[in-house]
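step=predict obj=ABC transporter ATP-binding protein n=517
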Amino acid sequence: MKLELKGITKSFGSLVANDHIDLVVEPGEIHSLLGENGAGKSTLMNVLYGLYEPTSGEILVDGKPVRFAGPGDAMAAGIGMVHQHFMLVPVFTVAENVALGRESTGFAGILDLEQTRTKIREISAEYGFNVDPDAVVEDLPVGVQQRVEIIKALVRDAHVLILDEPTAVLTPQETDELMNIMRQLKAGGTSIVFISHKLREVKAISDRITVIRRGKVVGSAEPSASTTDLASMMVGRSVSLSLDKAPAQPGAEIFRVRNLTVMSDVGTRLLDDVSFSVATGEILAVAGVQGNGQTELTEAVLGLHKHVRGSVTLDGHELVGRSVRQVLDAGVGFVPEDRTADGLVGSFSIAENLVLDLYGKKEFSRGSMMNRSAIAEHAARKVEEFDVRTPSARAAADTLSGGNQQKVVLARELSRPLKLFIASQPTRGVDVGSIEFLHKRIVAERDKGTPVIIVSTELDEVLELADRIAVLYAGRLMGIVPGKSSRDLLGLMMAGLTAEEATVQLSTIPTSEGEPS
């Protein structure tokens, strides 16, 4: 099936998310849509899938114009979509999820799932999915849940399959498995639109690459194109993708976590007896698939969780039991994983956001009154130092791009002497050019002698920044390994093996000569 988008424009009020986009997906090809977060990739695919109606332009299937009033029309035309956030009912079985929306009933109106089970088994056998139709979805690993989403599309005879940032929640091994599945689908004649911002994966799987920047197609490329060239197309200028980082010079281990356990309000163990230390002058990166205790770890250190057991000490002083204000005053700088919800007040000016945790200092206040001139002078210095792209520090924070918002958060947290710096998902939703700048500032803080903890689900970022890597799985620490450890080792640890178990397993994998590696 050949798919064509001609002049697709989608506007939300004055915001033009897609601007006259042309795209052709040939039968049986993997066509990657590459662009930064916010470039308009997902909006375009939501138009194609019938979730949005285009402001202008047309969609053609095998040369014939079509209009989709909703996803049902798109599916009827042979287009399926696997969303970044899965559209599954956790308490339903695989068969029930697959049948949802196209249920068939037998005698007395009883739901008949046997045909669905048969189809799931056939597709699983054909592609090696190994999915049990009667398994409950919430009991399945994330990678298997993604296969369920793919099965849903294939059961509905999808000839074009849209995968929206499909590797965001996968381990490296699961990513490799997904790419093998994509190749099998392609061999069977299915076309795939692969939406991603990850250059390594796009180069590995694509037949063709279309690059979108700020809602417009800015060019196309072959998978043989260099990552530097692709990054430059995404950003619109030359960028460096490698970080010039000198070896760490670790000193005393002044930050210690001992037997840290975090419980939910209903008694679920979110973090399970975690212990580690961080020295001055080093970066410890915490890796793992999202949802394995990383958020709870940082929030426990900050004093944001009520049900915490164990010990967290900084320079010999206990932090467990202290308020957030007391933890910050103890010298902890913190970049939260969701800057819009927890890092900034969007309606406040950039200048005001730069003193959110500093406004009580004498230089910024006179009694109960804010010292506006001092705040403005401080903002002017930080805007220049951190290269915040804005016409004025008086502009509201929510008028900035994601990368510039993150620069404001980082500037604020690094504006005071720190004994510990924690950055959670420091470059999520940030453009490639800003990533380069943010990474350099994080390394500069390490080189000042500050212990640094980075929490990231981006394995490239972990390997780029880390001096040591701690891996969390299901709230447990699988081990701490050197910063230059292999992706295979980290992937096995992210899937639940200890560092020792993963090392042993890798040592038994035959090399190309047939001997253990």
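step=describe
DSSP finds 18 helices and 22 strands in the chain.
step=end
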